[in-house]
Amino acid sequence: MGPGRKPVLAGNWKMFKTGAEAAAFARELRPRVSMIHDAEIVVCPPFTALSAALQALTGSNVQVGAQDVYWEAEGAFTGEVSAPMLKEAGCRWVIVGHSERRQLFGETDEAVARKAAAALGAGLSPIVCVGETLAEREAARTLDVVGRQIRTGLGGLSEEQMAGLVVAYEPVWAIGTGKVATPTQAEEVHQAIRSLVREIHGAPAAGALRILYGGSVKAGNVAELMSQPDVDGALVGGASLSAESFAAIVRWRG
Ligand code: PGA
What we know:
Elements: E1 8-12, H1 19-33, E2 40-44, H2 50-56, E3 62-66, H3 83-89, E4 93-96, H4 99-104, H5 109-121, E5 125-130, H6 134-138, H7 142-154, H8 159-162, E6 166-169, H9 183-201, H10 203-208, E7 210-214, H11 222-226, E8 233-236, H12 243-250
Parallel strand pairs: 1-2, 1-8, 2-3, 3-4, 4-5, 5-6, 6-7, 7-8
This protein binds 2-phosphoglycolic acid.
Residues 12, 170, 175-176, 214-217, 235-239 line the site of 2-phosphoglycolic acid.
């Protein structure tokens, strides 16, 4: 964690929880994290549970995000949801370019760029995900792949827009596998991302950018990851589904 950067702990629920389950989760989480003021806490339910989560978290220190967004504001795009719609619903955040969307739904770096820009345009903070596959890591292509994802995904944004987003580095081989990146592996890529952002958008934007780590984060490994100078938070899948384990991650300082 670097100086002046407020950590972000975000839960990505993926395709889990109904509205009733989201509300029950929120009721359990609120008292467990109400004392935390030095971090931003975010949960990202499926679209259908957003309103129940938002309602149950009203007046709390827990913010709500969506898991995807389309770049057009409205139109004949069956099945899609736009950034202004998410904003109006009460979301503050939206995950963009998660590796599951890239791998299972064909999302490209160009689509990620359009989605991030649309989210920012509507006043949402995108959590832009990047990360290499196991084959790419084994071929020593990690920094190339992540570099391309950052250049294409964020290269067209202004310095001012950069201030409104966070990046999540999620090695694909660490997602849902229990194989967390070592703090050194995470730090190496986080540092490379920050240098690249410095090159593209300048030192102030790079210094302020929060870079989250994601991939098998749990209460037992979050503190070590957060001790790295360029790890400014976590994007948590499996371990964010129980209020108890997500609260333990949010309270990593002890
Ligand atoms: P995981 O998922 O924590 O279950 O590995 C992380 C993510 O996909 O964002």
